[in-house]
Amino acid sequence: MQPAMMMFSSKYWARRGFSLDSALPEERPAGGGFTLNRSSSGKNEEKKGNKGNGKGESVSEGGKTAVVFSLKNEVGGLVKALRLFQEKHVSMVHIESRKSKRRNSEVEIFVDCDCSKKEFNELIQLLKFQTNIVSLNPPENIWTDEEGKAAFVSLDLDTDKCFAQVSPQSYTPVHSTHILSSTDLDCVPWFPRKISELDKCSQRVLMYGSELDADHPGFKDNVYRQRRKYFVDVAMSYKYGQPIPRVEYTAEEIKTWGVVFRELSKLYPTHACREYLKNFPLLTKYCGYREDNVPQLEDVSIFLKERSGFTVRPVAGYLSPRDFLAGLAYRVFHCTQYIRHGSDPLYTPEPDTCHELLGHVPLLADPKFAQFSQEIGLASLGASDEDVQKLATCYFFTIEFGLCKQEGQLRAYGAGLLSSIGELKHALSDKANVKTFDPKTTCLQECLITTFQEAYFVSESFEEAKEKMRDFAKSINRPFSVYFNPYTQSIEILKDTRSIENVVQDLRSDLNTLFHTSPLKSPFRCTKRSPCTFGEEAVKKVQDCEGEMGLQEPSEAEPSQRKRQRRLKSRRVLNNVLTDTRTLKN
Measured between alpha carbons, how far is 189 from 205 in angstroms, rounded to an integer? Predict the structure, then answer.
């Protein structure tokens, strides 16, 4: 059996005295950089402890304060109320609106303003005649939906910028300390906020490396163990941004690789999915995939970067599920460089470079599969140990041992299958127990270590599996959402309406570029003081536009091959934008 990433079995680690995460202490909370958006200034800061006591509380002589009031949902109502702010010379810094949860006929308005105590009190007296005051001076309150996601913003009166509108149906005022307090954040497991911090993750090897178990085929082979120590040193010395050191493999190692390569190549045409078969010849052409040559990770990383944005980096041995999945969030795959022991080329108790290069790499070159992998990684950031275990198990039964249907036949896309001759045959035989992939039940399946899996899970396509994992990820309880910024290669925390402003602006820019260079007119018309919506309506617009672009008629003079390529590129761009839009919506 090819065990692949067996670190995802909690029972496996329990037997060895390890927890789900590595034993190293966490150095800082994940959201250590969080700040409250509506903190007061001046004397107001000194009176922080007295806030939230109702209408009778005092306001500082100068600084930011806020009010929430409700009014009837009728034309002109908001204009009349906001005119009072102008009359009392109260500067409005920020304004939000939502449907009232008390009365269906009313809307609630949050106004963040900058004024003196006298101006604020006079304003309140006037507002009482035209509106119902819901709350006074709640600067530490942020509006989120019932799942802790960001509320929607109509406009920022300081900049006249349009903002995202995310799921505008049901919102609940939640005190910001429920989400952003240092006490709660101390409970959030650390995760890398920028790609260079993966250096820390790769150092936390839990087992193997240069230390082998007594049942390992190479345990008694001193030459092999010294060779493994060399690979450990290479991996532990590697830092982000460096070229991956090239390895001069021995004749014995090339021979072992050749046996695995030759035997598996016989099965791929009838057992591997079409995406795998499409990319494998490209790896032969550009990365030296041959029976008599072990590919170099640096060549593979360059190839993947051009194809799907993924890269690989060397690792010494097993990582914890949390550290391994964190790499996927950055489209980085931790990849071993050592070869299994030559005494049994068709078996290894751990993932080696045969498993990585033959099992994982061909599919990491597929954009849809790469996106699927990254989304599992993003869902793991800051999640609890229990949720990370569930995600890791879903990863295990999809990316490691997953099956799909193509042309009415079962095909393998899991790396553990595609790098194991015996289990690849077994999984596609009548003897295998094949179930439909459902993350809610799959996450409860035990991951077996030394034998074939008791069950394999099949999806109709990568897209279907991805959609199911997206829905499943919504059940993960985190006080924030995350967004991968491909420009800075960092993770942005989406914790409130302000934190998604830049993301929305980037998406709007991408959409404008896309639609200005296509024969379609942009469905996103962002005018001054008119909000850009990125909720269900926006998703539907992008989907509708994608359908239109797929159906548009190219020029008759354009060669058919070029027509097809142009359509595919257009759909790919739109699909990426749609994915980012869903991230904001969720």
Answer: 18
Catalytic residue among 100, 154, 419, 570: 419
Q: Which of 96, 140, 375, 400 is catalytic?
A: 400
Cα 201 off chain centre by: 17
499 a catalytic residue? no
Catalytic residue at 553?
no
Q: Which of 355, 356, 481, 570 is catalytic?
A: 355
Annotate 178-202 with b (16+ C-beta within 10 A) or e (fewer): ebbeeeebeebbbbbbebebbeebb
196 as an active site residue: the answer is no
Mean pLDDT per 10-residue interval, the chain, length 586 residues: 40 33 38 33 36 39 74 79 85 80 77 83 81 58 35 33 32 32 61 95 78 84 93 95 96 97 97 96 97 98 97 94 96 96 89 96 96 94 92 95 94 96 95 96 90 94 88 86 90 78 74 61 42 46 45 48 59 58 56
Q: What is the DSSP string of 213-233?
A: -TTSTTTT-HHHHHHHHHHHH
User: pTM for the whole thing?
Assistant: 0.64
Distances (CA, A) of 236 to 201, 239, 354, 401: 11, 8, 20, 28
Q: Is 400 noted as a catalytic residue in this protein?
A: yes
Q: What's the distance, CA 495 to chain centroid?
A: 15
Q: Active site residue: 271, 334, 341, 360, which one? A: 360
Instruction: Let me know: does 131 contact 71? Beta carbons within 8 Å.
Output: yes
